[in-house]
Amino acid sequence: MKCDRCKNMVVYSRKYSGENLCSMCFSSSIVNKTTRTISKYNMIKSGDVVGVAVSGGKDSLSLLQVLKKISLEHNFTLKAITVDEGIPGYRDEALKIVEDFCKKIDVEHKVYPYSSLFGTTLEQTLEIRGNEKVSSCSICGILRRRAIDFGAIDLKVDVIATGHNLDDMLQTFIINLISGDTKKIGWMDPDTSENKTRKIKPFCEIYENEIVFYAFTNEIPFQSEECPHMNEGIRTEIRNFLNSLEKTHSGIKNNMYKSILKISTILKDSNNSEWRTCSKCGTECTGEICSVCNTLTSFRLN
Ligand code: SF4
Ligand code: ZN
């Protein structure tokens, strides 16, 4: 079968749109879609230094490569921020992959370990957690966001980009929905132009399986090892549920994403939480103490 755009051999059939694409046209479609998302939400301004959070997985390395491709034309520069959670046997492979990849595409790269920032690794925190019902990923996520913020200040970036794709957005929406956290749904609005630190997700309109395919066709090396805590939370079940729906009703993820955009805009406007500074560490937050200090205090680590 021939590609719809150039008549080369088809390697990818986009079920929800009916397009059949060769490897080159598929890759350009991903780059173009990312560029359109960036300009639609004014994610990056000319002259910006963009800090990309690069874990070593397929999403973040593909994002770094796509942004590198368009950085010259759109006049921005890149720096890579990697967080080392301190998960034995898991992070080492990724750190090496990111280091080599950044060297290859000439991007400045720096690693921020939890142990230096918080005086504890994720594993040590989880040991202290004992039987308390807080998932590994919630603790890790709170610390990771702070570590990335720290890296952004340290590297003097204007905006932080993460590799979250459309599937991640849908899963997060459902998690927030079933936990009753409507404030966080408001925070999902991709337009972050009014926020103090802009956090952008340039892949937020691209299916996860397309990012995987992009990484393979562009020979982007990514970490094969999965985090040992990955399947502890509900996210994997939601991911499988959405994938099974998409299989029989193609395009359903795109429809759901459009609804999330509308809902998050409404909830964002009705969110009127006052920003204060954490009484322990001075970081901007909505309560008396921030989520990081809260987490560390509850495990008696600060
Ligand atoms: Fe952290 Fe969970 Fe990701 Fe593992 S899967 S790195 S614990 S957020
Ligand atoms: Zn704090």
Question: Nutshell version of this structure?
Answer:
50% of the residues lie in helices and 12% in strands. It has 302 residues and is α/β, with parallel strands linked by helices. A five-stranded parallel β-sheet has the order 5-4-3-6-7, with helices on both faces. The protein has a two-stranded antiparallel sheet with strand order 1-2.
Helices, strands, pairings?
Layout: E1 12-14, E2 19-21, H1 23-40, E3 49-53, H2 58-74, E4 77-84, H3 91-105, E5 108-113, H4 114-118, H5 122-129, H6 136-154, E6 159-161, H7 166-178, H8 182-186, E7 198-200, H9 208-217, H10 235-248, H11 252-270, E8 276-277, E9 284-285, H12 291-298
Parallel strand pairs: 3-4, 3-6, 4-5, 6-7
Antiparallel strand pairs: 1-2, 8-9
Helix pairs in contact: 1-2, 1-9, 2-9, 7-10, 7-11
What does this structure look like?
This protein has 302 residues and is of the alpha/beta class. The protein has one domain: Rossmann fold (3-Layer(aba) Sandwich), CATH 3.40.50.620. Helices cover 50% and strands 12% of the residues. The chain is built from twelve helices and nine strands. A five-stranded parallel beta sheet has the order 5-4-3-6-7, sandwiched between helices. The protein has a two-stranded antiparallel sheet with strand order 1-2. Strand 4, helix 3 and strand 5 form a beta-alpha-beta unit. The radius of gyration is 20 Å and the shape is globular. It starts with 11 loop residues before the first strand and ends with a helix. The mean pLDDT is 91. The structure holds iron/sulfur cluster and zinc ion. Iron/sulfur cluster is lined by residues 85, 136-137, 140-141, 227, 229-230. The site of zinc ion has 8 residues, from helix 12.
